[in-house]
Write a structure and sequence with these properties.
With about 575 residues, this protein is an alpha/beta fold. The protein has 21 helices and twelve strands. Helices cover about 65% and strands about 10% of the residues. The strands form three sheets. It has a six-stranded mixed sheet with strand order 6-9-10-3-11-12. Strands 2-1-4-5 form a four-stranded antiparallel sheet, with no helix packed on it. A hairpin with a 2-residue loop joins β4 and β5. The longest helix has about 55 residues. It is elongated, with a radius of gyration of 35 Å.
Length: about 575
């Protein structure tokens, strides 16, 4: 945690120095006030010197006013610094996640990444706020209080030999038990977020299968698990605070008892006793503040470790140190003896994949579920990197491209159409911020989406909710296709993007695409034979390998796997 805070506090060193200076001034002032109070009692009250009381009392009021002003200023700048650190940390985590490939995202999990960028950052931020108000003052008040107490009366200060170690022992024992519980709490918060996200995202499925009760029980289980751990932590600290308060009160009684005996014997002025009592309270109060920090620091240390884990993770897919020169725009895609296996997997998902897709041609990839179709096309934009062989775009291995340059040439329409919150126009301009309204309408027309957008009262300004849940699945897919068309890349990857369309809309859309994308490289992954049977080239995959390559008619004669797929969907008349 110290390394993380040092890194993110460095830009605010001036504010930090100001806050620390003000806190130091406050601590010195608080140590000076009891001393001044003792002098007023000894030299003013006991001797009946009213002028001295007014003079010294006025000084006390002035010191108190200065301390109040410094407290306000230090609290303001301390909070400002802590909020800025939290902002920078959240930004850093978000930017780090943006560089992750799908491997790293799968490793952490979406729910855990959200928790790390919200709850974990908040824990560290709270420690910074508390530290800039307590952590500096507490040790100064503790050490200074001991020194000042010794100045008042050395024999009476012997009480500290018993009081302070006893309090430190209680704090240490409880903190030692609390740290593992804090680590477990953050993991259980991840689990709670995961269950909440799954239930909310799949609410339609939950209701369709009448599993509301099951999901409620599932949520209650993880919620009760987290609550149980939190209660165990709070019970520990619920024992700590009363214990320390008891020690503080017993210490006050002991100081008054033994101090009263020394005052009665004349060995100690009464003013010194009141000052000593105030110093004892300051020492114990500083320890109480340390307790508050000890409550927060272990959990924040766990959170800081989780944040650093994200920030220090090196993406498995990254830009090369010296990216290749961007070749002339063409759109050629070539797979050369490609193999791919997921991290930790014993068997490869893809084996010996070799084919090429050319500009002005449509290449279709078809195969049974789990044959590796989507995995293959995900290698082109480097969502994953090949484990053997190479994928080339315009003759250059994609691993030698700067990813931004590579992505500019590729338009991906994913299997699961996703829209962002905003308007239809906002979503369509995701690929080209400068696109005009006419260009947007043209893309919608090609994607067979113009009709339903025109029927909306706001047209292009019609609102889209998060994920596009306020439009149908077919409308989401057509808007996703229109979004890629607005980008106008050289390579289009349709990853089963026609599955939610009826046959009539599918046919019209493919006809419009063939007219408008004549010079582009089009790669279509599909389950529906009718979508791909007119492609210039069809790649047939089975169990991660290519088992057929050619046109529809060639494959019908030479590829049993393709023939089986075709006849499972079409009758002999439709095939002919």
């Amino acid at each position: 945690m110290i390394v993380l805070l040092r890194q993110y506090l460095r830009p605010y060193s001036r504010q930090l120095v100001l806050v620390l200076a003000l806190l130091l001034l406050q601590a010195i002032g608080n140590l000076y006030l009891p001393e001044l109070n003792a002098e007023i009692i000894n030299n003013g009250v006991v001797k009946g010197n009213a002028d001295y009381i007014l003079q010294a009392g006025g000084l006390m009021l002035l010191v108190t006013l200065v301390l109040g002003i410094t407290a306000i200023i230090s609290t303001y700048f301390g909070a400002l610094t802590a909020m800025a650190v939290g902002r920078d940390m959240r930004s850093a985590v978000f930017r780090a996640v943006q560089t992750f490939s799908q491997v790293e995202v799968n490793k952490f999990g979406t729910a855990s990444l959200i928790t790390r960028n919200t709850n974990d950052v908040q824990q560290v931020q709270m420690v910074v706020v508390t530290a800039l108000s307590m952590m500096v003052s507490a040790p100064i008040l503790m050490v200074g209080g001991v020194i000042m107490a010794l100045r008042q009366d050395v024999p009476l200060s012997g009480l500290l030999i018993v009081i302070v170690p006893l309090m430190v022992l209680i704090i240490g024992l409880i903190t030692r038990r609390a740290i593992p519980l804090f680590m477990a709490m953050q993991v259980k918060i991840d689990r709670l977020n995961l269950v909440s996200r799954e239930t909310l995202a799949g609410i339609r499925v939950v209701r369709a299968f009448v599993r509301t009760g099951h999901e409620e029980a599932r949520f209650d289980e993880v919620n009760a698990d987290l609550t149980g751990t939190a209660l165990r932590v709070n019970r520990l600290f619920a024992f700590m605070i009363p214990s320390l308060t008891l020690i503080m009160n017993v210490s006050t009684v002991a100081v008054l008892w033994f101090g009263g005996l020394r005052v009665d014997s004349g060995e100690m002025p009464i003013g010194n006793l009141t000052a000593f009592l105030q110093y004892i309270i300051q020492i114990l109060f500083a320890l109480m503040m340390a307790v508050i920090m000890f409550v927060m620091v272990p959990r924040a240390a766990v959170s800081a470790g989780r944040i650093r884990e994200v920030l220090e993770t090196q993406p498995s897919v990254s830009d090369p140190e010296r990216p290749a020169r961007t070749p002339a725009r063409a759109g050629t895609v070539e797979f050369r003896d490609v193999e791919f296996r997921y991290p930790g997997a014993q068997e490869p998902v893809l084996r010996s994949i070799t084919f090429s897709a050319r500009p002005g041609k449509t290449t279709a990839i078809v195969g049974s579920t789990g044959s590796g179709k989507s995995t293959a096309v995900n290698l082109i934009p480097r969502f994953y990197d090949v484990t053997a062989g190479s994928v080339l775009v315009d003759g250059v291995d994609v691993r030698e491209w700067a990813r931004q340059d590579l992505w500019h040439r590729i338009g991906v329409i994913p299997q699961r159409a996703f829209l962002f919150s905003g308007t239809i126009a906002d979503n369509l301009r995701y690929g080209d911020k400068a696109a005009t309204a006419d260009e947007l309408w043209t893309a919608l027309e090609i994607a067979q989406a113009r009709e339903f957008v025109e029927e909306m009262a706001e047209g292009l300004k019609a609102p889209i909710t998060q994920g596009g849940t306020n439009v149908s699945g077919g409308q989401r897919q057509r808007l996703s296709i229109a979004r890629a068309l607005v980008k106008r890349p050289e390579i289009y990857i349709f990853d089963d993007s026609f599955s939610a369309l009826d046959f009539k809309t599918d046919a019209r859309l493919r006809a419009a695409l063939s007219r408008q994308l004549g010079d582009a490289t089009v790669i279509i992954v599909a389950q529906r034979v009718g979508t791909i049977m007119h492609a210039d080239q069809i790649v047939v995959m089975d169990d991660g390998a290519i088992v057929g390559l050619g046109t529809h008619h060639e494959l019908l004669e030479a590829c049993p796997t393709y023939r089986e797929i075709v006849f499972s969907q079409l009758n002999e008349e439709e095939v002919a």
